[in-house]
Amino acid sequence: MDEQLRRLAEAHGVATHYENAEQRRVEVDSDVVEAILRELRADAPKPELPPTIVLREGETADLKGPAVVHLEDGTERRTGRHLPEDLPLGWHRIVTKDQEITLAVAPRRLPDVPRAWGWMLQLYAARSDESWGMGDFCDLATIARRSSLELDAGVLLVNPVQAISPTHPVERSPYSPSSRRYANPLYLRISDTSAYLTADEETRRKVDALKPPNRELIDYDEIWDAKRKALELLWRDEPQEMDEDLRTFATFCAIAETEGPDWRQWPARQQNPETATASSERIRFHAWLQHLCIAQLDEVRLAAHEAGMAVGVIHDLPVGVHPGGADTWAQRSVYARATVGAPPDAFAKDGQDWNLPPWRPDKLAETGYAPFVQVLRSVLRHGDGIRIDHVAGLWRLWWIPEGEPPSRGTYVYYDADAMLGVLALEAHRAGAVVVGEDLGTVEPVVTKTLQENGMLTSAVLWFQRDWDAPGHPIVPPRQWNQHAMASISTHDLPTAATYLSEHPDFGELMAAEGLDPADPVEGAHALLAQAPCALVLTSPQDALGETRQPNLPGTIDEYPNWRIPLPVPLDEFFSRVRSVVRPLRVRDR
Predict the structure, then answer these.
(1) Residues 485, 538: Cα–Cα separation, whole Å
(2) What does the alpha-carbon distance between residue 326 and residue 280 come to, in Å, rounded to a whole number?
């Protein structure tokens, strides 16, 4: 590779080589590096100082001259070439002779996470007699309340509940939302909305008649059709409180109803938010749906708090958004014309393309990390914590240029110190815990830095092995790191019942740890209870002995991903799992 190209790539955080899963050096093709650099506008002039500075409490920075710091509280601090070390936590502005700079001052570390056990829940699967074919926000409140009061649970991790496009076919995967800044009205409990509760008897009767049955597999299209019709019956066309961001999102939804879910296939005028037009009534309707979601999500959090949960509700944040969805439509300049995924490895010899467009690191800095802040605040508004899926993406992401296979990509690096600082500041302000999903091929610095920041990492029983020892023996849970969220499995892996039947070495571990359960699933939970980790979670699927996993990676229609309900309704669930989770309940007594 040309040395000038190599230096340019290094200056913009584009890898020219990397270590693969076998720790062998792989050189990246020059034309791939050039394509990524073009996308990053590498020829643009750089300002003297970075457009955003993120510091930790007590740190300073060289401004290369005098400046005025405009603090968040409205006061000003004049300074020389170095920032004062006693600046308060928060979002501030620095004004120099030639630049205006965003300044974030973050805590050095988040508080320790209370010890608790709880559920990692796929909400759509947790149906009750009152929900319409799939679990909803009111079911989530019920699970939080009853899990705390009846089972002493202190935490509830829920799958992403971010917005979809209101079109057919309805996106099933919670990890490919249209927007990470708004909520999914598919999870609304119709009969618990204020509009239903104040409606006349005839309207309620019509709404009740739309309720779909609980089917063997969840039918998202049928459920959305029924809920949309019900909400339209209840809708009173009244002025809606909307800031500009909500108006833009609601406009996207209104256009998508007629033009389809992918703005890249819309007429040219509609592809641009500045020139797009939509029915003002439908814009107000979709804004109203978001207000309903906010109200019910607030009730979920309140239920967890009133029941005495030690931690509360943790919301899962997916890696990215659909490339043709609401967020890329509204914030096009901060997204790259590329997708993210993973390089080739033993599990995917051609690599992986997740079809999710990445944020441009240069645009994040230019905007004061506003897109990241908006996403964090949207999630933390209703939660006591956030789980960052593929948290290594705060350090680097595998970018795949347009038109290339996933093997023809490279890593693009982000300012991890800045990303972590922003995350720490927003979590501190919300009083929230942070969990990073650091499974798979992850650089050691990721796990180490997260724990130094008071953020939890992830420990999954199936993966906790000594990979340097012959035969890769299982590391007993009692030896795991306390700064972690521990679980038996994940939504992408075989359930406890399935995995244990195929791996007898876990039975041997149970015997070695002095456990002799009649049921291996109960034994797995007893093993997990030995972990010193701050949070210990199990899934309803694992506790119930379910053999079907929620998602089978690498499949689309071959397997009913995200469509499998729990084998028992919620009313029956709590009595069925009581004995299985008993070791988790008594762990901290």
Answers:
(1) 10
(2) 17
550 — alpha (psi -120 to 50), left (phi > 0) or beta?
alpha
Please report how many Cα atoms fall inside a 13 Å half-sphere around the Cα of residue 22, on the Cβ side.
Answer: 8
DSSP letters for 81-129: SB--TTPPSEEEEEE-SS-EEEEEEE-SSPPPPPPEEEEEE-GGG---S
Structure-block tokens of residue 290: 């978001």
Q: Which two tokens stand for residue 35?
A: 């394509």
For 224, the token pair is: 């959305």
What values do phi and psi take at 342, rounded to 5?
-145, 150
Spell out the domain ranges in the chain.
58-106, 116-294
Q: Which is nearest to 46 in space by CA: 394, 397, 418, 366? A: 366
Q: Is the pLDDT of residue 251 over 80?
A: yes
Strands 155-158 and 116-121: parallel
Spatial distance between the Cα atoms of 95 and 79, rounded to a whole number of angstroms: 10
pLDDT exceeds cutoff 90 at 554? no
Return d(Cα 340, Cα 389) in angstroms, integer: 13
Summarised one tens digit per residue, pLDDT across range 101-116 is: 999 999 999 999 999 9
Distance CA 311, CA 120 (A): 13
Q: How far, in Å, CA of 63 to CA of 66, rounded?
A: 7
Continuous segment of H or E residues that includes residue 11: helix 3-11
Q: Tell me the three state secondary structure of residue 434.
A: strand
Do 450 and 419 meet the contact criterion of CB atoms below 8 Å apart?
no
| Digit-coded pLDDT (tens) for 196-230 | 999 999 999 999 999 999 999 999 999 999 999 99
Q: Give the strand order in the sheet containing 155-158.
A: 433-436, 385-388, 312-317, 155-158, 116-121, 535-538, 484-487, 457-460
Q: What is the pLDDT of residues 160-188, one digit of tens each?
A: 999 999 999 999 999 999 999 999 999 99
According to the 3-state scheme, what is the secondary structure of 265-304? HCCHHHHCCCCCCCCHHHHHHHHHHHHHHHHHHHHHHHHH
Element (H, E) at 422: helix 416-430
Q: Residues in the chain, how many?
A: 589
Query: Could you tell me if residue 369 is left (phi over 0), alpha (psi between -120 and 50 degrees) or otherwise beta?
Result: left
**What SS3 state is found at 202?**
helix
CA distances from 156 to 160, 383, 434 (A): 13, 10, 13
Distance CA 545, CA 496 (A): 7
pLDDT above 80 for 60:
yes
Largest CA distance in the chain: 76
Residue 487: both structure tokens together = 């679980």
Give the predicted TM-score (pTM) of the model: 0.96
| C-beta of residue 167 within 8 angstroms of C-beta of residue 322 | no
From the list 107, 110, 104, 53, the residue with the least C-alpha distance to 386 is 110
